[in-house]
Amino acid sequence: xxxxxxxxxxxxxxxxxxxxxxxxxxxxxxxxxxxxxxxxxxxxxxxxxxxxxxxxxxxxxxxxxxxxxxxxxxxxxxxxxxxxxxxxxxxxxxxxxxxxxxxxxxxxxxx
Amino acid sequence: xxxxxxxxxxxxxxxxxxxxxxxxxxxxxxxxxxxxxxxxxxxxxxxxxxxxxxxxxxxxxxxxxxxxxxxxxxxxxxxxxxxxxxxxxxxxxxxxxxxxxxxxxxxxxxxxxxxxxxxxxxxxxxxxxxxxxxx
Lengths: 111, 135
Description:
The complex is a heterodimer of chains A (111) and B (135).
Chain A: H1 3-7, H2 10-13, H3 17-28, E1 32-33, H4 34-38, H5 45-57, E2 61-66, E3 69-74, H6 77-110
Helix pairs in contact in A: 3-5
Chain B: E1 5-11, H1 15-23, H2 25-31, E2 34-35, E3 44-48, E4 58-67, E5 71-78, E6 81-92, E7 95-103, H3 112-118, H4 120-134
Antiparallel strand pairs in B: 1-7, 2-3, 3-4, 4-5, 5-6, 6-7
Helix pairs in contact in B: 1-2
């Protein structure tokens, strides 16, 4: 796996506390400009912008221009990928067991 | 908390019939995936299915336990996670109880896959938050 694609990965994007806090702030608001986001952190706007850029690369954050301001909002869609992966096996085995049940019932009916 | 999967299923078929479905390669292909399984401890085999965007569709396995017809265990190595699948069977009240444990996920590791598992709560919370707001 190459490093570049790894940094744009949704998992890497959420593996940092600052970025998780950014996501949470954006989840609580419809959209926020940079200065409102920066106000929540000890770090400066450049540092916050860098984190936002990583979130944008992972498609977790969208931006739009509103006059002179750039506003950011959360795009939660890629997060589903994470949830799907975790709940994957519970879903997987439940589905497979249902197939097994049908298979056994067919067998039962044949004999 | 380490992610672990623990599921219970019940079947009317006998323990022997369920065991057969768990250990016969042709039967396994009908409800799990295509495979070259053999119920022999130490046998190395693969489950395989269509690859997806995030997964090559291959599970590497080795048989760990074969206690016919009560216990079966094999490794389940895929997507960088080295896990173990264990099936336990018992007959009670005219019903066959099948218990599944899928364990060994490395939630504390900072590896690619470990991170996926570690952040599930955050992702779920965020999604819930968003759903609540939409309503």
